[in-house]
Amino acid sequence: AIIIPLLLLAGLAGFATIGVKTEQYTVVGVSALVAVAASVVASILRKWCEMATPLQRRLALYQQKLLKQNPKPRACEPGPGRALHVDQILDLHDFFKGFIQMRNMHYLEPNIIRRLTLPYRLSYAEVAGPSSVQWFVSHCWLHPFAATCSALEKHARRVAGHGQWQGLAYWFCTFCNNQYDLDRELGNGHWERSSFYLALMDAGCQGTCMILDENLHPFGRSWCLFELLISIMKCEGAAIGAHDVLSNTSEIMFCTSSGILNRGEASVEVSLNIGRRASHVRLENAAASVQSDKDMIDQLVISRMGGFENINAKLQ
Asked: Where do runs of H (alpha helix) occur along 70-188?
């Protein structure tokens, strides 16, 4: 609808130039037509702006903001080099919180992340400006994003002490995986090549921040089980892959919106409810969107831990 009036406007402007060499009334007439066409175009543009939804207008503003921060988004290798500072994550939430409200990743990814990254077909971290991982975030997409952000902020403040907590870098799959090339991010069926594993096993990764609520959603997802297994083995200094060089300096923190559970900082009610439910968790019941992913991860648990009984006991 916009293109036709623009073409008309361009054609009339060109004709007006020719008309100058002829009769004066021709110039006046064509000038009037140009003015009318310009008015039509302006009207259509105003209508489009009015038709754009509030979310579309907000997305356009945030795209401008991202471009100022990272003018030339570029691809980088999957894994540890695609983390985000915690303030980048919190800023995204604050900017769109009126739309996100208490929604989870199933809303955020298609409606906000995917639209911000579509022009580049890159991960959100690559568009926003990536950093090197310091903490790995294990989470379930069913968890409200607002509660996730609250848990991350509390974790960052806790581990930074009196330092600059805003600059801590977190690897967070929704933001750090390229959602347009998930087969590659998942290692094309090889867990040692997955972006999750590469980030977890990086020497700069200090540990795992598992986001929990009273529903314990992460324990029902196979990839969260994978992250928990690798995190446990890394904490114990156990060899996992053929070329891993490990130390036992890593740690796992179970983080809630009220504080870190295994640091005694979560609310009493949340702690008690999680404790009661955790005693009944059976990680062998975890599910995956793709059955082959579940089969691969289940086999890894059996081969590395000797069976689900052992990892269930460690969790509880």
From this structure: 86-100, 105-108, 114-117, 124-128, 145-160, 173-176, 182-185
Tokens standing for 136? Answer: 């790995």
Q: In what order do the strands lie in the sheet with 207-211?
A: 84-85, 169-172, 135-138, 207-211, 251-256, 259-260
44-81 pLDDT per residue, tens: 546 655 678 999 999 999 999 999 999 999 999 999 99
Are the C-beta atoms of 237 and 247 separated by less than 8 Å? yes
How much is the pTM?
Answer: 0.80
What are phi and psi for residue 135, nearest 5 degrees? -135, 140
Tokens in use for 123?
């991960």
Task: Determine contact, residues 301/219, Cβ cutoff 8 Å.
Answer: no
Q: Assign 115 to helix, strand or coil.
A: helix
Q: Are 205 and 135 in contact (CB under 8 A)?
A: yes
